[in-house]
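Shipment paperwork, digital attachment
Item: protein structure file
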Amino acid sequence: MRAFRSALATLLVLGCPATEATRRYTADEARALMKKMEVASLELGEFPIDGASSVLDGDTIRVKGLTSSMRLLGLDTEETFKKDKERAAFAAGWEAYKKKMKGTSLRPVKYATPLGEDGKKFAQGFFEGVRSVRLERDHPAEIRDFYGRYLAYVFAKRNGEWVNYNVECVRAGYSPYFVKYGRSRRFHHEFVEAEKEAREAQRGIWKPGAMAYPDYDERLAWWAAREAVIHRFEKASEESPDTYVALTRFDAMLRLESRVGQETIVLGSVSDVRFSDGRGPSVVKLARSRSSDFDVVFFDKDVLISTGLQFKKGEYVQVRGLVQKYKNEKGWERLQMVVSLPGQVLAPSSELDKLLNEADETRAARDDEDD
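Attachment content:
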């Protein structure tokens, strides 16, 4: 209880001005709101905020009573300037700054931009004077993301009607429709139309010459490839829902526990690939959260190499096999899936695989020269 009150006090001090409304906000009310967030439901109800001061950036707002932040679904606004080294690098010039931030990464990267600052200002204007918001989910069983943040759509009342901030942020041009973790099941059409409108009107990030990420075509193609894997999995699961288990769902491990000894198809993102050192199998870890993952085991290292999973870190993959239970070296029971054929793995392919392979070969050759 003491830890809870301490966390609540910290949240209120950091996130909210000391208004009369804030002082009346009790620990009991906070507990009641947190309990609502852990319920498997689409509509969560209304939650208090402190207007514009609750905005952290374009896709993050702070809601009273929650000890973790929220990831706003369908959004990925650009970053705001939070560090002196970012501001110093930007002061050297926009072109040099973009090059420095990109570095040697083969993927698009996130960094602070003036459009990120503009996105924050848009959010502050949207929530100015708002004292409560309505939170909704995209799926009852998808409660938190990998980092423990709540997943939500945020609605605020405008002229007596609830307006979806997530969609309006895309319409204003401060974020593309973000499908990296899957398309919106409930507002897909609205997001598509909002992005189309913003692009045609050349708003925000879509304005020629805007100080924004220059590689949205690449980002959108990357996200679309990931989304296609997720969407294909979800469509297939409609015909046999018991067989398909998405590791992003809060009840994933309970469902896998009930399917021990049965063929199952799982969907998850690759968090790590550990090749055998000759004393055990190779293991691909599919992420559930920072502290939880699911092991896909390969007793034949060549089979793992054939799947290409070593180039898929961070990407969603689909794996088919028997769910098994075993005891690790500490005597704890764990669930796993054994793969013996490359065909049991379905992963997206792209030109990036070739680039990553070439980069690995170049690094290996450089290491050999150093030796």
